[in-house]
Amino acid sequence: MAPAERCPLCRQTFFCGRGHVYSRKHRRQLKEALERLLPQVEAARKAIRAAQVERYVPEHERRCWCLCCGCEVRKHLSHGNLTVLHGGLLEHLASPEHKKATNRFWWENKAEFQMKEKFLISPQDYARFKKSMVKGLDSYEEKEDEVIKEMAAQIREVEHSRQELVRSVLEPQAVPDPEEGSSALGSWKGTNSQAASTSQQPSYLDLQPAPELDWMETGQPLTFIGHQVQWIRQPGRASAPSGAIPPWMVQEEEHSSGNQQIGPSHEEFLKEKEKQKLKKLPPDRVGANFDHDSSTSVGWLPSFGRVWNNGRRWQSRHQFKTEAAARNKQSHKEKK
């Protein structure tokens, strides 16, 4: 019986010796594995004539599984901020180690001999790839230079527009026309003279209605908005039409006298202090809710003692009698 051997493609142990590589299952597994690797190799072969250079991104760190060598290989070749697509896989396929591993894999698994050349890169093809890679790097640098120039032009344009805006703001205003200035000055003097004439009048009650003026004449710099009445404040009279004195000018008696007492009295303070002391005591204490002002008759004599704060129970009867006698004496005195 042949010793046990393990097939990495089928992932099982077999005891039939070299006959396993000719089995139907092994041939099917070998074909599927080669078909998975073949598209990646063909994409790398297309990059031999025209190498593509791109800016580095984390996705360029992908790896692929080399079936012949039994190891992972970097798919792209990265250096700094640049990445050459399929450069890592082409470098591995052109290495002599990969060629030896491919020959051994084809011998052990009895694969088709015509397919072996598809998984190998000759030194001439790899040299051609290096030349195309140099051209790709040069074209990429030219594109980057163009992009930088465009960005610089945009920056200069924005800076120029900003300077123009600042210059337009800082420039002095245009000098007004002397004719317009003289007309505005005359109108200003006219309004001042009218205000002075109205200020000399005694009050607003003695004002005469202003004569109607033709404000639609040409050459008038102002627009008529109606007859305006100017209120003039005189001593002893209010400036508002209602005639009321403003509240901030009224002198309050309570503030002017200064005799009013501020805050509670001494008796109120003592009462409040006593209430605060009682609030600190427990509410369920004995005698807390007892009404000392309630009237009791002589016929009510507690057999066990009323509510007390100190003393014995039998003393409550004597205390009640003493209080009753005192009340009777006081009532007789009031009647007399």
Automatic annotation (TrEMBL):
The yes or no answer to whether the keyword Coiled coil is present is yes
Give the source's domain of life in one word. Answer: Eukaryota
Ranges for the region named Disordered are: 168-205, 275-295
Q: Keyword set for this entry?
A: Coiled coil
- Upper classification of the organism: Eukaryota, Metazoa, Chordata, Craniata, Vertebrata
- Compositional bias (Polar residues): 189-203
Which organism does this sequence originate in?
Crocuta crocuta (Spotted hyena)
* Alphabetical list of InterPro entries matching this protein: CCDC84-like (IPR028015)
> Which named protein is this?
CCD84 protein
Q: Which Pfam families match?
A: CCDC84 (PF14968)
Is Aminoacyl-tRNA synthetase tagged as a keyword? Answer: no
Q: Kindly list any coiled-coil regions of this protein.
A: 137-168
